[in-house]
Design goal:
By secondary structure, the chain is of the alpha/beta class. The protein has two domains: about 5-205, 2-enoyl-CoA Hydratase, Chain A, domain 1 (Alpha-Beta Complex), CATH 3.90.226; about 210-255. The protein is built from ten helices and nine strands. It has helices at about 30-45, 85-100, 115-125, 150-160, 160-170, 175-180, 195-205, 210-220, 230-240, 245-255; strands at about 5-10, 10-15, 50-55, 105-110, 115, 125-130, 135, 175, 185-190. Strands 1-2-3-4-6-9 form a six-stranded mixed beta sheet, sandwiched between helices. α2 links the parallel β3 (about 50-55) and β4. The longest helix has 17 residues, at about 85-100. One of its GO terms (molecular function) is isomerase activity. Keywords: Isomerase. Belongs to the enoyl-CoA hydratase/isomerase family. This is 2-(1,2-epoxy-1,2-dihydrophenyl)acetyl-CoA isomerase. Pfam families: ECH_1.
Amino acid sequence: MDSTLVERKDGLVTVTFNRPERKNALDAASWAALDQVLTEVAGNPEDRALLLTGAGGNFSSGADLTGSGSGGSSSGLTGRGRQAILHEMRHVGELINRLHRLPKPTIAAVDGVVVGVSMGLALACDLIVASDRARFSSVFVRRGLALDGGTSWSLPRQVGLRRAKQLAFLGDWLGAEQALDWGLVNEVVPAEELAKTAAALGQRLAAGPTTAISLIKRMLDASESLTFEQAVEEEARAQHITYTTKDMREGIQAFIERREPKFTGE
C-alpha cells in the first residue's frame, strides 16, 4: 500500500497521507513522496492548487519515530540514511519551507489528530479547513523536544505569542472550535463534509488566476517585514505583472460582458 496517494483533477492536486493504521505517521516514504510532489506542482503549469489531507479519519500523528516505517530502520527519519538529527531536520525544514513558498495556493483539510511536525505542515498551507473532531497538539515538549516543522515561526504569527507559548510549553490538545476561535484554522465543518468542502475550495483556487494568486501570496506572506511604503511599491510591481497575463484580460472582458471569468492560469 502506498504511504502517500496523489490525485489530480481539474488543476487541483490532492495529496493524501495514507498510513491509517499509524494515524498517518510520516515515514521516509511519506517525506520522499512530498518532496516529489512539491517539485512537480511547482514546475507543472497544469497543477494550479495543492490540497493536503489524511486517510482514515486523521491528518497525521507526526513523524514516525518507531523505526518501523516503510523506509526501514536503517534509513533514518527521512530515508536518506542514518545521520545527525540536525541534517535530518534541515531536510524536513526545507521541505516544509518549499510548501510554504509554493507559488500556488495550498489547503490543508484536517481531520482527527494533527500533531507535531504534521501541525507544521498544516500551518505551512495558505488555508486550513478542519473537521469538528480535529485536534491539534504541539506535542514536542511532551517528548523532551524543541519545536520543529516551522511551528516556531508559524504559531506566534497565527495565534499570537502568548498563546503560541501556551501551546508549545504545555503540549496540550486544542480542539477544532478553539482553533477556529484562536485563528489557527479558517473553517470548521462536520467530519462527513470535510472532503467535499475542502475539494470545492481547492477547485475554486485551481480555477483562479494563477499568476495573480501567486503574487498576492508573496505580498501577504512578506507584509510583516515591509513598511507601508514598501508594500505599496510591491503592489505596483505586482499589478504591472498581472497586466501582462491572459487571465487579466479575461477578467476584464468577463466584467464587461457580465459573466464569470474562465481563467486558464496563463
